[in-house]
Amino acid sequence: MGKVYFIILNFNTQKETIQCINSIKKLDNCGLQVEILIIDNCSTDFSYEGLFDLYKGEQNINLYRMEKNIGFSKANNWGYKFVKKRGDAEFCVVCNSDVEFIQQDFLVRVKREFLTSNFYICGPDVFCESRLKTKYKGHQSPAYPYEWNKGYVEIYYSYQKMKLDRLIGKKIVFCRNIPILFKWTICKCITYIACMTIWAKYREKRHENVPVHGSCIIVSRLFMNDEEVLFYPETKFYGEELLLYLRNKRKGTKMIYNPEIRIKHLQGRSTDALKESINTKIFKYENFATSAKVYLEELKN
Predict the structure, then answer these.
(1) 9 — phi, psi (to 5°)?
(2) Which has the closest alpha carbon to 295: 163, 153, 152?
(3) What are the tens digits of pLDDT across the range 48-62?
(4) CA distance 73 to 255
(5) Is the pTM of this model over 0.85?
(6) Is 189 exposed, middle or buried (0-12, 13-18, 19+ CB in 10 A)?
(7) CA-CA distance, 179 to 157, in Å (whole number)?
């Protein structure tokens, strides 16, 4: 019997991790043996201890703690290598702690998609109720075509750097930032109109070879047979899905978005655990900018 592994990254989100695991336990296993791997990214609120006490007697749930918070990419790569070394996985589902699997036949749908497309990577429809009133109408996946465009990412990088510089008190020459603000404003207006018209139904349709949302990424045994790591280059937080898309595009392997596979996302609980503060904003802007810079450098190679 083949296995499906669920890798859940936990940082100060014990409640969400438990909800995620409870939703996994309700799934039809589709003839697969289900194993859950919780990676605690050095939580500071005793959530590791709470999860350890709760699951220490369950054979199909393994809990590991990092010695320090090593970021999203490295922690998930650690889990991925653990699963790959086992050598018995048909699928590996890498997910945030703040997602819930709302379809009992989730694995049935994943298996059906694999039999149809032989995907390396598959992404579900990531639905977030708190985003219902946005242009995305709650649907967070896949990325829109402009989001992996070099020009857009360059403007995005400059804008994040500008916000970071202002926040840390770095001297700002306003006139130098006018072009950035102008480009960003125009870019946002154009993309908003495009999302409401040209791409209005974009996320309701199945797509091949597009970046899928990083809160839930499904990799098949084909990917695991070929790849030593999941995320490369490693960024600390944010942008991993774009780099994953770029890597697979170069290799010509299949990356599928299937809206018939659906999960619920409790937006940002993992990063919200840091609490919204000046330091948190600096953290976000720094990592947004860093990830965009890495992506731009990879585009050059």
Answers:
(1) -95, 120
(2) 153
(3) 999 999 999 899 999
(4) 19
(5) yes
(6) exposed
(7) 13
